[in-house]
């Protein structure tokens, strides 16, 4: 499977780029579409593949986003835990109590969170401060690759890939410099509307 | 020969006093007006006000310019101040030093984590801890744990960081600390100098201002303004104000008195002679205070000098009445007057304020010396053919007033009764009930402080649990004992949480117990294999963990010095303080939220039940109110006692209840009218106003005595006597009246009561003089 993928990806990439150019689906248009997104609540399932662990760990729960910089991640499994990010103030609440942090104290976490938050906000300028953007696909199935331009982030993250359709994000995959990776699938909650 | 003896004694006294004064240390610090405290909690409070880390915090705001300029200035200022030895810590919301702090917490996790117990390092304990860590890896906190999991699979670091984070639980806004309206960037700086070291505080503040000026003038940020507040600023400003005002007011007062006397006497010789008793009295007073207290406070001089205006009066009485017929009666009156003043000021000696006690001693010594100088030295100094201008014309106004006594003699009593009614109506709003009322900090400065404090995460601690001991380690051990009690209270929802210095610096016993819980490398390896058998994290990846545990078992114990260079040192220093031979671990206690305030009785009961010795729960707000109430009560008792002593003295001397009543009624009316008027004007009374009232009675009784003494004559007091009273009154009015203009509450309160009070006392005494019918000469 992986060999096939390795061959396929560049190929697909070229096709997608060509398609994007053809349809006029550009980073600006994607950002504009994303910026229309008022925010809301979605489901997530995240799998982390860590070298130190023999099997991946999975967590599920909901994500809440409010423009421009408010992000919440409420995990239900494997243990209830919630993370609320407001500006740079990060509050982590676990059954044992809550932990307040300043995001700037944790640059690696900040780089990851910022990429998601800025994508949600459709803030191209913020994304381009730290990443080179490559868009492929069409409006109905797009892939945005973020490659760190900042060496400090590059020491931690090789690539962040965000896939979606229209103004909706479907998956966020992060490949870390140490080979560990994570994949988060996002699905809307039907009853909650957008 | 007989004429020369007093002169020689006088010169000797002058010489001794001059030497004494030259060796005197003068201070202008506020601590003399922080009362010496009676209870353990209050002593702690006063210590905290003086030395606590809160007293070393400077709150800094930068406003003006645009947001970018303010941000640049905030960063540049923080950077420059961090490099300055005058400051031990500077925060502006930027994250600095945390890497070092986290590293330190990580390195010492096995001594710091309360989770380290023998059970946690059993097979079952390790299994549970590691399984939890694996779940944590899945969570958003996983990013924190992942880099260290091979060395710390039980996640002790997170246990420790959680405590640390609670301590610095402070709201930060994007980038830098900014006021809610966004108009100011904010910084918090801790000075190296203690709060009690006013010189050090002044130097630190000067460094701060100079640094700001240097950073902004070059950079085109001239429109930025620096706001600084905090206890250090208050202390430095107060000292400057006191120094400045004492010098300005007493020199203005002295100049006024000199001009007044010169106008009246029209004789430089008389002026010089008149000043001899005052100068002698002042020298002797300073000397006595210096001997009794080791130092002389600026405020003592500030209102000690106008008090000596009373000493000027003695010379005035002497010159003007010298040629009068009945010298014996004159000196008896003066003696009684001095005694009443001495009784009045004696009451100040027993108040809890070292500052007021100084004033009492200064005035008593000064007055007695001045009157002795007037009695024995002035006659020897006065040239044989010396005569001053006839000033009896000044007495006419008083005589006229006395002439009105039949028609309006009851006016003072009516005014007094009206004032009493006013006071009764205002009785709930008469008194200031806060220690802050004595603070010389201007209202505007207090408001700036409150504004900055609201915007900043500055510690505003109200409840403290305090563990005391004779050494730091025992204090920490006791804090750990009390911490267990507080943990239970927190679990029951009685309190929201607490901080403790023992979190970052556990007692030796606790550290030893934690280290003893760590198994040796072989045991740990065996147990890990069993514990991780069914986990995705295999034991063979945890070699670094085994190494770290082995290293921790042989690492030296943590001491205060181990914390040097981390922000944690500041946290520990803030909560572990020592004064003389007592170490105190302070544990700030938070309420759950505003709707669930702390019940002090429940906390006290739990602390008592814990059996930890010398534990105290302090509610700083109510304690400081109680402290002030205690002083108010003490001052009331002292003032009441002083007035009573004066009345008893007069009763004995006058031997007639009717005369006593006639003498006391105008004084009573005076005090009531002055206080009533102040209260109508919206001034809240402090214990210093009380002291002022006492002085009104002491000074006013002198006037009254002369009216009474004059009663022996057929014609009331002679015009000469009346003139001397008018001159004496004018000098008192000048000396004290000028104090009323002061912005230092201590000086203002005394001045505003004694200035008008002295004038009214004279007018009322004249109006209520029993002489019958209008008599004009």
UniProtKB/TrEMBL annotation, chain A:
Pfam families: LolA_3. The keyword Nucleus does not apply. It comes from the Bacteria. The keyword Methyltransferase does not apply. Residues 1-21 form the signal peptide. Keywords: Lipoprotein, Signal. This is Outer membrane lipoprotein carrier protein LolA. It comes from Nitrogeniibacter mangrovi.
TrEMBL record, chain B:
Its main location: membrane. It is found in: Cell membrane. Gene3D superfamilies: Multidrug efflux transporter AcrB transmembrane domain. Residues 162-382 form the Membrane transport protein MMPL domain. GO terms for cellular component: plasma membrane. The chain crosses the membrane at residues 246-265, 272-293, 299-320, 332-353, 359-378, 408-426, 635-654, 661-681, 687-707, 719-740, 746-767. Keywords: Cell membrane, Membrane, Transmembrane, Transmembrane helix. InterPro entries: MMPL_dom, Mycobact_MmpL. It is a multi-pass membrane protein. PANTHER family: MEMBRANE PROTEIN MJ1562-RELATED, MEMBRANE PROTEIN YDFJ. This is MMPL family transporter.
């Amino acid at each position: 499977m992986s060999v096939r993928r390795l061959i396929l990806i560049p190929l697909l990439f070229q096709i997608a780029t060509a398609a994007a150019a053809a349809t006029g689906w550009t980073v600006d248009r994607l950002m504009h579409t994303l910026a229309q997104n008022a925010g809301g609540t979605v489901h997530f399932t995240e799998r982390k593949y860590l070298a130190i662990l023999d099997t991946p760990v999975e967590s599920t729960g909901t994500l809440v986003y409010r423009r421009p910089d408010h992000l919440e991640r409420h995990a239900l499994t494997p243990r209830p835990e919630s993370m609320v990010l407001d500006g740079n103030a990060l509050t982590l609440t676990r059954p044992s109590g809550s932990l307040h942090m300043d995001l700037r104290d944790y640059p690696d976490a900040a780089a990851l969170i910022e990429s998601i938050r800025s994508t949600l906000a459709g803030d191209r300028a913020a994304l381009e401060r730290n990443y080179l953007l490559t868009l492929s696909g069409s409006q109905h199935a797009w892939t945005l690759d973020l490659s760190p331009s900042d060496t400090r982030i590059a020491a931690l993250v090789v690539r962040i890939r965000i896939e979606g359709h229209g103004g909706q994000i479907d998956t966020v995959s992060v490949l870390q410099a140490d080979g560990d990776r994570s994949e988060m699938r996002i699905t809307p909650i039907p009853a909650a509307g957008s | 020969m007989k004429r020369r003896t007093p002169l020689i004694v006088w010169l000797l006294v002058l010489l001794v006093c001059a030497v004494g004064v030259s060796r005197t240390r003068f201070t202008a610090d506020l601590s003399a007006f922080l009362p010496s405290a009676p209870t353990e909690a209050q002593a702690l409070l006063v210590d905290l006000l003086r030395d606590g880390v809160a007293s070393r915090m400077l709150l800094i705001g930068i406003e003006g310019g645009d947001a970018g300029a303010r941000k640049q200035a905030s960063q540049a200022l923080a950077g420059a101040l961090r490099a300055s030895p005058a400051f031990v810590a500077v925060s502006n919301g930027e994250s600095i030093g945390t890497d070092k702090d986290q590293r330190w917490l990580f390195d010492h996790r096995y001594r710091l984590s309360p989770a380290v117990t023998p059970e946690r390092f059993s097979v079952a304990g390790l299994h549970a801890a590691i399984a939890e860590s694996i779940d944590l890896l899945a969570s958003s906190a996983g990013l924190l744990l992942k880099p260290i999991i091979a060395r710390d699979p039980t996640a002790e670091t997170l246990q420790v960081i959680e405590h640390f984070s609670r301590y610095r639980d402070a709201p930060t806004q994007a980038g830098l600390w900014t006021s809610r309206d966004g108009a100011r960037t904010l910084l918090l700086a801790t000075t190296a100098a203690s709060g009690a070291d006013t010189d050090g505080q002044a130097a630190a503040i000067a460094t701060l201002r100079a640094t700001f000026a240097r950073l902004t003038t070059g950079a085109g940020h001239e429109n930025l303004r620096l706001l600084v507040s905090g206890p250090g600023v208050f202390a430095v400003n107060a000292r400057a104000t006191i120094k400045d005002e004492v010098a300005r007011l007493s020199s203005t007062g002295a100049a006024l008195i000199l001009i007044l006397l010169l106008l009246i006497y029209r004789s430089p010789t008389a002026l010089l002679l008149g000043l001899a008793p005052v100068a002698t009295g002042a020298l002797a007073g300073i000397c006595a205070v210096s001997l009794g207290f080791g130092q002389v406070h600026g405020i003592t001089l500030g209102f000690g000098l106008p008090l000596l205006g009373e000493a000027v009066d003695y010379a005035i009485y002497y010159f003007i009445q010298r040629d009068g017929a009945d010298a014996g009666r004159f000196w008896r009156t003066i003696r009684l007057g001095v005694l009443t003043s001495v009784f009045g000021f004696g009451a100040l000696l027993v108040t809890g304020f070292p500052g007021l006690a100084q004033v009492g001693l200064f005035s008593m010594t000064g007055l007695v010396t001045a009157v002795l100088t007037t009695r024995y030295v002035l006659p020897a100094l006065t040239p044989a053919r010396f005569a001053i201008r006839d000033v009896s014309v000044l007495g006419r106004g008083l005589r006229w007033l006395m002439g009105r006594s039949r028609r309006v003699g009851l006016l003072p009593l009516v005014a007094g009764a009206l004032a009493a009614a006013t006071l009764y109506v205002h009785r709930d709003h008469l008194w200031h009930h806060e220690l802050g009322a004595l603070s010389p900090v201007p209202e505007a400065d207090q408001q700036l402080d409150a504004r900055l404090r609201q915007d900043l995460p500055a510690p505003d601690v109200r409840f403290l649990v305090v563990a005391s001991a004779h050494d730091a380690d025992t204090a920490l051990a006791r804090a750990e004992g009390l911490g267990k009690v507080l943990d239970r209270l927190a679990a029951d929802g009685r309190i929201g949480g607490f901080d403790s210095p023992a979190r970052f610096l556990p007692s030796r016993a606790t550290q030893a117990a934690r280290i003893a819980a760590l198994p040796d490398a072989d045991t740990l390896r065996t147990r890990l294999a069993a514990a991780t058998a069914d986990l995705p994290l295999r034991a063979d990846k945890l070699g670094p963990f085994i190494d770290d545990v082995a290293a921790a078992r042989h690492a030296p114990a943590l001491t205060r010095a181990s914390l040097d260079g981390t922000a944690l040192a500041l946290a520990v220093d803030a909560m572990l303080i020592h004064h003389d031979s007592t170490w105190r671990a302070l544990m700030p206690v938070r309420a759950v939220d505003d709707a669930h305030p702390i019940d002090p009785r429940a906390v006290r009961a739990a602390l008592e039940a814990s059996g930890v010795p010398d534990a105290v729960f302090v509610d700083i707000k109510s304690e400081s109110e109680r402290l002030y109430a205690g002083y108010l009560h003490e001052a009331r008792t002292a003032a009441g006692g002083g007035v009573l002593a004066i009345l008893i003295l007069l009763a004995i001397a006058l031997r007639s209840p009717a005369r006593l009543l006639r003498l006391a009624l105008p004084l009573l009316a005076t005090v009531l009218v002055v206080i009533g008027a102040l209260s109508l004007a919206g001034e809240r009374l402090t214990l210093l106003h009380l002291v002022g009232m006492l002085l009104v009675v002491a000074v006013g009784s002198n006037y009254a005595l002369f009216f009474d003494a004059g009663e022996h004559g057929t014609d009331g007091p002679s015009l000469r006597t009346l003139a001397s009273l008018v001159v004496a009154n004018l000098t008192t009015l000048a000396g004290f009246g000028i104090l009323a203009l002061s912005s230092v509450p201590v000086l203002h309160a005394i001045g505003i009561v004694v200035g008008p009070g002295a004038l009214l006392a004279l007018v009322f005494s004249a109006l209520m003089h029993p002489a019958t019918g209008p008599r004009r000469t």
